[in-house]
Amino acid sequence: MRNLVKTAIAALTIVSLAGSATAAAKDEDAIKARVAAFIDLFNKGDAKAMAPFWVEDGTIVNPVGIMGKGRAEIEKVIATDLAMFLKGTKMTMTVVSVRMVGKDAAFIEIEHGVTGAMGPDGKPLPPITFHVPSLMVKKGKEWMIADARPYAYLPPPPDKMAAGKADKK
Q1: SS3 label, residue 116
Q2: Would the CA dihedral through 81, 153, 102, 30 be positive or negative?
Q3: Which is nearest to 97 in space by CA: 105, 107, 85?
């Protein structure tokens, strides 16, 4: 009898874990689909349609440090970015990691590729990769952005510094 109870508990645990893994995979797929829809709007330059991807009190801090809180401000930040340094660009977004935080939140890391950007001097810039750590939350059946912080890595230091072998005097 005890073995039967242990076997039943083990089976229920396995089924429960399998169900959790399946749910997490479905959530990850839904998040990736949401990001794909977002980048389509980004490439169309539609800041107004992009803002509703955020929760009402969501935030963004763009790569130059301008913060938008709430959808109206987020729309303004995105519209300004699209009119200035992202004007005429082609963009891609790839979800490189998803870390579920409970069943209704996920911390994601996105690589955001930008080509066709122009510098302040009007000269073409090389392709840029932004990294976009973001918190997404599930509202009903829809994944929404709560916070996003796009940034670009600084250039690497000279070889000696990177190897930890600074010159000593």
Answers
A1: coil
A2: positive
A3: 107
- pLDDT single digits (tens) 31-78: 999 999 999 999 999 999 999 999 999 999 999 999 999 999 999 999
The two structure tokens encoding residue 58:
């969501």
Work out the pLDDT band at 107, boundaries 50, 70, 90.
very high
Quick one: DSSP state of residue 39?
Answer: H
5 vs 17, residue with greater confidence:
5
67-69, strands of its sheet edge to edge: 67-69, 54-61, 142-148, 128-139, 105-115, 90-100
Q: Coil, strand, or helix at residue 1?
A: coil
Q: What CATH number does the domain located at 2-162 have?
A: 3.10.450.50
* Statement: the pTM of the whole predicted model exceeds 0.85: no
